[in-house]
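task queued by scheduler; priority normal; single chain, no ligands, no partner chains; default sampling; output format set to structure tokens
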Amino acid sequence: MILQLTEREKQFLATVREFVRTDVLPYHREWETSMWPDSLFDTMARNGILHMVVPQSLGGIGVSCQTYAEAVREIARGDGALAMNVAALNALCAAHFVDFVTQEQREKYLPGILNGSIRMAWGLTEPTAGSDARGVQTWAKPDPELGPDRYRMNGQKMFITNAGRAQLIIIIARVSDDALAPFLLETSDPGYEFTRRIPTLGVKASFTAEFNLKDALGWRTPGTFEEVTGLLYRGRIGIAGMALGLAEMAFESAVEYSKQREQFGKPICKNQAIQWMLADSRVEIEAARLLIHKAARMFDEGQRVVEEASHAKLFSSETARNVTNRAIQIFGGRGYTLDYDVEKYWRDAKLCEIGEGSSEVQRLIIAKQVLR
């Protein structure tokens, strides 16, 4: 399936590629022991990368889902952690301000989101609520003294991408025994208590965090839980794009290494065992690309993509796992060292099978659609 991009979108992707070349690739190893600098957020804001899904009428770039997925793929070719953050900040955070806020909320926060001075996070996951999103135990109760739509929130959140650097977090909290709702939380509120940065196997540069809410002030936004979590469909297409970018980099590295590495008097690419691994990886990468393009194009056409988004994420994330694993095997002992990037691609790729709905959850979604 051929991507349908406007000239403006093609120019935007060219900007993203240049950003990756100059501002990401030279530093992606360095960031693993720290994190990327604040200046990187400023650069991304200036280039529209942090708000690419926000329509031009609201001050954003307003690119299609196809362009969004391609941008995440390009960024993943530079750093998986950054790609994960860009995917979430667009599909779950910036997109919330398109459809699920009041005019007052948009006027207060959107200018800062667009210029990069307000960084965001999306707070759903809890110690007892991951795949079971409806298991959220953070409660929000109205506080009439604070005004309409103001609530006090109590609970704990964990595995929240970018929460340690965010000024504003969208919190999913319980408002009754059987209903959940979205809220805006400013991290400067005394009720927000940052607990810790969670160390992770891969995507190390991301500030994945845990925090507590103790009578924290929440500003309820429009939209039901079901409507707001519908943002995950585009988010899953973005994570699929991330997985594809990582798989591409691992594959390209493996091909080049197999041509240079000699054993038994010849390049290892002459061995059928290596050729079959490369062939399998090439086919899986191209199949993943087509699934992503299909889901993104259907999204742009306004079609329902519940199943297609899961197709793309499930297959692409498992493709990234397979391709990065084969790449390490082709590199042999060197692939298991820190001297080559294939081990980083492998670690970063694993996140794609877990974040924004695990592979098991994607299979459940697909099966439910099949059996309707």
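post-processing summary
- The first helix runs from residue 7 to 24.
- The chain has a mean pLDDT of 96.
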